[in-house]
Amino acid sequence: MSANEETQPKRPNYFLWTAPLVGVLATIAVVKPTLFTNTITDVSKFFYMKFDWLIMWLPLLAFTVCMTVALSPRFGNIRLGGKDAQPEYSFFSWMNMLFTAGIGVGIVFFGPIEALWHYYHSPIGIQAENLPEYQKVENAMSLALHVWGIPAWSLYTIGGLVLAYFMYQHKTECTPSAPLEYAFKHKKWAKPLGILITGIAIVSIAMSVSSSIAMASTQISSGMKIITGMDFSTIGWQTVVLIIIASLYTLGAVLPIEKGMKWLGDLTVVLSLLMLVFVFLVGPTHYFLSNLVVSIGNILTQTVHHSFELYLFHNRDWLVWYPMAYWVWWITWTPFVGVFLAKISKGRTLREFVLASIMVPVGFLVIWFSVFSGFSLLDTVEGSGRLAEIANKGDYEGTFYYLLNMLPLSFATKPLTVVLFLGFVVTTVTSSAISLGIMTSNDGRHENKTRAVIWAILMSLIGYAVIVTGKMEGIKAVGSFSGFPFVFIMYLWFAALWRQLKRDVPRVSPAQEPVKDKE
Predict the structure, then answer these.
(1) pLDDT tens per residue, range 49-79
(2) pLDDT score for 144
């Protein structure tokens, strides 16, 4: 052991206390689901109402910071890992892994119903009595794409950018605390705050991803019931589905990234592209194209407006449980998505990292929601209204399948949708297990396969408890609630990145090599 290694402070054993804590929280949620859920919901609503001004514009600020770095001639050309570093994955595989890690089953589950929620419940949907119908529909699509588009991916990108920069340029741990501990190394508060941040992130990731596992199990079971006519909604069948899902993402966590996550990401994205192209071609193509053009225009003209609109004199329940709850949910996932993005992005310039991580996923999602949410809006306004009726009855899991029933070849596309659900949840949990394995490893930099498998199993058990009790609300509430601290931590990340870039750039350019700060 070198003298330098001997002087390094011992790293906290995060695994030793975060894993049991996750189990305790899950047990409470299962044993006392109503009390647990109501308490967390009340606290969450209080936080949303009191800090709405801080939450709503945070994604826009993240986008501004990202683009400032990317477009800067001083910062944009910095290459992660040094000037000679080469990307480990092709651009296609890199994008696929990035996209599937950050989205999961959400785009399939919410695709047909996202705009409907905003159409029926937002202050500028059907509740806006003085607006013409076309404007209400346009507003619903605009809000749907605002929620899933640039803001979401700006949050993910800033997380990955900050973690990757410090990990590759300054050899720090790949944990949410590392940027703060390095950039503010002389501040007494940096170390204890860093330990707290990493611990919260680990618990938050495990809980929130567990709810996605349970959600995907019910979605796949619902699809099998619609396809076969058999009742796959029983606990027994959902448990079988969960075991299959758990086996796949546990295997993905064990395999090297280039053989596990890379292959899963490529396959899932290819299947989603096939589904998108099929619906686009056999559905009302001209309408989809028109909707796409209008949607792009709204992104360009309405993003800033939506980011600062708090609807002060309206019923604010929609604002609390849609945009702001989404923002906190994205922020909750930012630590593990950021860790995973950093892990797979060596050799990319900061400009390439930012532009690709924001523009490519957003471009895909604009098309996806313009097609699927657009189809549901068209059916609601000028068609049978069947999709809105199904969604309003709470059959969210089945809405995508019923949409496919309205199109040709549904006997083939519905089974493909089941595979899509499976692919997205497996890639999401695989990436989260890998990230948790890194964050709870002995050095905080490299994958720990054993601990990644333990996290995968633990998240599976929590997901099973949710399925058995039917109380998904408790776990989902914890997942979102535990992300609240990161609303404030995001601002510290901005400061840490900017502080370190200003220190490094005069010495990094043109060699683009990291240097140690003067003590």
Answers:
(1) 888 888 888 999 999 999 999 999 989 999 9
(2) 93
Is residue 355 within a helix (H) or strand (E), and if so which, with residue range? helix 350-382
Cβ atoms of residues 56 and 317 within 8 Å: no
Average pLDDT for residues 77-99, to the nearest whole number? Answer: 86
- Tokens, residue 146: 């605002």
What span, in angstroms and rounded, lies between the C-alpha atoms of 9 and 373? 52
User: Mind spelling out the 3-state secondary structure of 237-303?
Assistant: HHHHHHHHHHHHHHHHHHCCCCCCHHHHHHHHHHHHHHHHHHHHHHCCHHHHHHHHHHHHHHHHHHH
Residue 421 in tokens: 């659900």
- For the chain, helix (H) and strand (E) counts, in that order, are 24, 0
Instruction: Provide the whole-model pTM.
Output: 0.84
Question: Among candidates 210, 50, 152, 177, which has minimal Cα distance to 364?
Answer: 152
Query: How far apart are the C-alpha atoms of 353 and 146, rounded to whole Å?
Result: 21
In angstroms, the CA 267 to CA 35 distance is 42
Q: Is the peptide bond before 59 cis (omega within 30 degrees of 0)?
A: no
The pLDDT tens digits for 154-182 are: 998 998 899 999 999 998 888 888 899 99
Per-residue confidence (pLDDT) for residue 25, from 0 to 100: 73
CA distance 416 to 408: 14
Q: Are 458 and 250 in contact (CB under 8 A)?
A: no
State pLDDT tens for residues 332-341: 878 878 877 8
- Tokens representing residue 72 in the block: 């800067």
Band of pLDDT at residue 473, cut at 50, 70 and 90:
low
**CB neighbours of 437 closer than 8 A, spacing ≥ 6?**
253, 447, 448, 449, 450, 451, 452, 455
HSE, side-chain direction, 13 A CA sphere, residue 331: 26
Q: Would you tell me how many other CB atoms lie within 10 Å of the CB of residue 444? A: 21
Which residue from 47, 20, 151 is spatially nearest to 482, judged by alpha carbons?
Answer: 47
